[in-house]
Amino acid sequence: MSENQSSFALPAALASRARALGTATLYEASGLPCAVDPQVRPVWPGAFIAAPAYPLVCSPGDNLAIHIAMERVPRGSALVVGTSNFLAGYWGEVLTVAAEAAGVTGLIIDGGVRDVAAIAARCFPVFARGISVRGTVKASAPSVGKPMIFAGAAVAAGDLVVADDDGVVFIPSAEIERTITAGEARAEKEAAMMQRIAQGESTLELMGLTQWRHNA
């Protein structure tokens, strides 16, 4: 029996709140250095992830750690894969099918993937630094399930990873509810501001920046 029978899924209501806010609002509301290198991008437009993170580290050009993680990752989690920014095809259609069977909700990787047309056709959310046809070996697994620094941001198992067209953020597990609540307050404030802008007020007025009207 594989080890990933336990479930770690984000409550549906929490995922829905995170989706409504998006990464930009969550990042600003968190007040934390939680944003990933912006070069990590969705491989198909509209991809979205809001799930507990399951981090792992691959040696450059070696994807053994991913195969090991597939037997350990709690269902409902998203894989966060560090590769030291090495571009190779660590992930493709076969691993996508395996991930779906294991209950994995998405992939964030600072390396490369391939078979992107098949991944997009399956609507499996993948965020990667690049695309590469180069294959990988299976010889080492530096870290599976342990905390790490991924593309400039700290992540540990159970942290909330949210990824969309704007980028990727990691919210520490202890900060999830606070960040989402603060994000909703921020979104409400911005909605009121945009309504006033539509009625003719300027951003300089609303942000208290009118002293700069004649200084530029």
TrEMBL record:
PANTHER family: 4-HYDROXY-4-METHYL-2-OXOGLUTARATE ALDOLASE 3-RELATED, BLR3842 PROTEIN. One of its GO terms (molecular function) is methyltransferase activity. It comes from the Bacteria. Transmembrane segments: none annotated. One of its GO terms (biological process) is methylation. This is Dimethylmenaquinone methyltransferase. Mg(2+) binds at residue 115. Pfam families: RraA-like. It comes from Trinickia dinghuensis. Keywords: Magnesium, Metal-binding, Methyltransferase, Transferase. CDD domains: RraA_family. Its cofactor is Mg(2+). InterPro entries: RraA/RraA-like (IPR005493), RraA/RraA-like_sf (IPR036704). Substrate binds at residues 92-95, 114.
